[in-house]
Amino acid sequence: MTEIKTQFDPILRKIIKNKKKIAVIPIGSIEQHGPHLPISTDSDIVSNVSKKISDKNGYLLLPTITYGVSFEHAPFFNLSIRESTLRTVLVDLCTSLSENNIKTIFIINGHHGNLKSIKNFDLKIKKILKNRVKVFPLSYWHFMDRDFDHAGFVETSLMLAISKNVKMNKKRGLEFFLWLLSIFFATQIYSSINGPIKFNQVKNERYTQVIDRLKDIRNAQIAHKDVRGFYANNFDSLVSFIDTGIFTLIEKRDSSYLQYDRTYRIDMLKEVEIVDTLGFVSVKDSLFGENELYKMMAKVPIDGSDSQFSIKSDVIDKNGYAVHVFEVKVKKNIILFDQNKDLLDQENKVISVDGVNGPELVLGSMSEVSTSGNWPTFFDAKNKE
Question: What's the Cα-to-Cα distance from 346 to each of 208, 249, 311, 340, 349, rounded to whole Å?
Fold first, then answer.
């Protein structure tokens, strides 16, 4: 974890430059929490949760935004800002982080009154920054198995675990019991929040590996069709083609000449296309050079998995024309075989412009003329960076 407020400019810029960093912005509130908890409770808890997540994953931790939307607590003590003010601050911070080459930001919320400010914030910032950064707004209690309360059993337990600033006029036995429960709840909350974060991190890394392999397969299939007139129906044929296939290098140019027309009894201009053969180059050298990994292109490139891609090709009728098509795919269950099952079930049901829709990663189509994949464009942009 790199806590931004303790860093010096040259060191911080070097850290960001040498490694693609993820930033965490905690947001809390200053408001009454009864006679036994400090007014900083929401900020204290979310700061602690965010620090543990950042420590474990090496994220950049920003200072907590301690002021939130707490007008509902009047006439009890609160220091509040408007929803629009908090949203503007978050937009400005995300913009600044993007300009400093931060690509992913987690906003971790610790106060219920801030919910409207962060609702659909990921879509808003995506439009403002034109997809330059991905933002994930989260409220830590949404990952708890127990219903959340205000200054009640849960918040009191959490504060006992992280702070000495709690007034408890109870017997020592009850305090010890609450202390044990506080450790349990703190662990549960940390695990619940960190679980989806780690899942998304693993998912994106593995999807990138699989998509890179699918792009190699696409290039090989296009070459196969250019040379042989059809797509390969299995990987053995495709790999064999790469080993032995030859591209013919040609040059096309237009030309014309005069030809006597017997009907009109005059010389008429004839236009022709002349094709010159310039040479030959192997498919392997053209597509892969010295790299021999193409021989394993059938294998899904995920450690711990021995699975292979599914591949098939055919000729379909499209508006009266016979068209060659192919399809290569792999199930998300194979790519993410060792991840949380509940999160994997959610991923299999994704329908989003920013996600891989459906339960599979798919290249090509058996019903449409396409050599595209079903992944979002930012996976293609990653390879260009």
Answer: 19, 49, 26, 10, 5
Q: Which domains, from first to last, does the chain contain?
A: 2-169 (3.40.50.10310), 207-244+292-382 (no CATH)
What distance in Å separates the CA atoms of residue 346 and residue 203, rounded to the nearest whole number? 12
Tokens representing residue 324 in the block = 């060659």
Q: What is the DSSP letter of 288?
A: T
Helix, strand or coil, per DSSP, at residue 103: coil
Instruction: Fill in the amino acid letter for 340.
Output: N
Q: Do residues 109 and 139 touch, judged by C-beta distance below 8 A? A: yes
**Helix H or strand E encompassing 90:** helix 83-99
Which position has the token pair 């040059």?
251
This prediction's pTM: 0.53
Q: Give the residue among 200, 195, 179 at the shortest CA–CA distance from 52.
A: 195
Ranges assigned E (strand) in the chain = 2-3, 22-27, 30-31, 60-61, 78-79, 104-109, 134-139, 246-261, 266-282, 310-318, 321-331, 360-364
In the numeric block, the tokens 């965490």 are attached to 24
- Count of beta carbons in the 10 Å neighbourhood of residue 178: 19
Lowest mean pLDDT among 44-53, 192-201, 275-284: 275-284
Q: How far does CA 125 lie from the centroid of its chain?
A: 15
